[in-house]
Amino acid sequence: MMHVTKNKIVSIHYRITDPDGKIIDDNTPFDPMEYLHGHHHILAGLENALEGLAVGQEMAVILAPEDAYGAYDSEKLMEMDRSDCPVEEDQLQPGTVLESSDGMEFVVKCVNESTITLDGNHPLAGITLHCNIQIVSIRDASPEELYQKQPLSTQNKTCGPGCCC
Is residue 109 domain-resident? Predict the structure, then answer.
């Protein structure tokens, strides 16, 4: 029997909720998510918890913010002049995601006549996550998957790396 260890391609179904039970993400109605275990492609706290599990096993994991998306950092809140914002005024509202020239993402928290308040925290920063995970399958990673450090899709396995079919 194969177990979740480094360099295995692991397929999981998951449901993630906040402490109040509100669903944050759920892939159970869909195909399982595949990832290359041991290469930090999922949250570190979750990857550590899944180590050693076998196909069919289920686990409930509670991830403190430090093991998930980090603590909420109020220093990542910033204000900018509304006139400096490149977004059209009719598209500027709380919840809008803006990207800076260096690729950082900010969520618009507040818009008033002269300024915009932006939040650079991950939307799940500061939230304890409740994760229910089921191991669907485990297999050895191919040399190509190890080289690319991620699972290759079935389509790429048929056509080869770099295929655009």
Answer: yes
